[in-house]
Amino acid sequence: MKFTETSVDVRYAETDQMGIVYHANYLVWFEIGRTKLIESLGFKYADMEAQGILSPVTDIHASYKKPLTYGQKAKIKTAIKEYTGIKVVYLYEIYNDDDELCVIGDSTHVCVKKENFRPISIKKCFPEWHEAYMKAMDV
């Protein structure tokens, strides 16, 4: 499994009254990690969308282990956990400045036609993505 890494500064606006990162912000960070992973494979969501294909989230999970606070840096590690040619499950791990695991999660996506939300086969419609995803899972 090939992980990509990116980081974000924890901004004050992302924290709650308790001074810790508000839980929904981790989902935004998942998306940042997923986008970076796709770019590291040589692709962009925008190119797929320009061809009339969307990749909605069909399921998402997050398990909170340790809080992150304002002023820290969140390190987002992302990998492809499962890929079937139609469905993709991305794995996320978010760490703090001390390299402690703070959040672990995953999101499930399918690619659909924009006009009718019917699923498409990534393997058939985007063979380059398919090959890259297969290779990323083998590493």
From TrEMBL:
<dbReference type="InterPro" id="IPR050563">
    <property type="entry name" value="4-hydroxybenzoyl-CoA_TE"/>
</dbReference>
<dbReference type="Pfam" id="PF13279">
    <property type="entry name" value="4HBT_2"/>
</dbReference>
<protein>
    <submittedName>
        <fullName>Acyl-CoA thioesterase</fullName>
    </submittedName>
</protein>
<keyword id="KW-0378">Hydrolase</keyword>
<dbReference type="InterPro" id="IPR029069">
    <property type="entry name" value="HotDog_dom_sf"/>
</dbReference>
<comment type="similarity">
    <text>Belongs to the 4-hydroxybenzoyl-CoA thioesterase family.</text>
</comment>
<dbReference type="InterPro" id="IPR006684">
    <property type="entry name" value="YbgC/YbaW"/>
</dbReference>
